[in-house]
Amino acid sequence: MGIEEKAPSGFMLAKVSDLVGLIRKSSLWPVTMGLACCAIEMMATGTPRFDISRFGMEVFRASPRQADLMIVSGRVSQKMAPVVRQVYDQMSEPKWVLSMGVCASSGGMFNNYAVVQGVDHILPVDIYLPGCPPRPEMLLNAILELHEQIRSEPLGANRAEAARAVEAAALRATPTHEMTGLLA
Q1: Which of 41, 55, 60, 169 has minimal Cβ neighbours within 10 Å of its Cβ?
Q2: Rounded mean pLDDT of the chain?
Q3: Annotated binding site
Q4: By three-state DSSP, how is residue 83 classified?
Q5: pTM of the full structure
Q6: Banded pLDDT at 97 (limits 50, 70, 90)
Q7: What is the per-residue DSSP string for 145-176?
Q8: Model pLDDT for residues 10-55, shown as the tens digit of each residue
Q9: Which residues form a coiled coil?
């Protein structure tokens, strides 16, 4: 006879980390970070046709202090990179980053000195969303993937250590102009 049988009906037994993961994934608030063409598709995701509010993301926040998800949509110029980083630093923990579109993920067709060749050179990215521009359905799918990632994340100091390790690895990444490979 286990504890489940002794508990009165209507009670649910769960780990605190599972409940916190469920709550976090159901109440993501994205910060407004539309930088280029992909921002149009990101805005379309907020319309009634795609209804992002069913995932707890009704309003895109203008203040980073009220947001916990940054959707970097579009190319990031060298001049905009410090601003993007500052907005990220102003977001409260826990925070997540979704890189939307090929330009945000790798610089896209803009392989030049003026565009950051992937936002992961300035921020730790949790989900990469390919496409030029990605459709709203693809963004919704990426958000659902992020929900699963959030739900299974550890709590407390373990999460902070993991986030610091990911950020350090991202900032140590080799810049694309120094990479050698098939195109070199």
Answers
A1: 169
A2: 82
A3: 37-38, 103, 132
A4: helix
A5: 0.78
A6: very high
A7: HHHHHHHTPPPTHHHHHHHHHHHHHHHTSPPG
A8: 666 667 777 777 777 777 888 878 888 888 998 888 888 988 888 8
A9: none
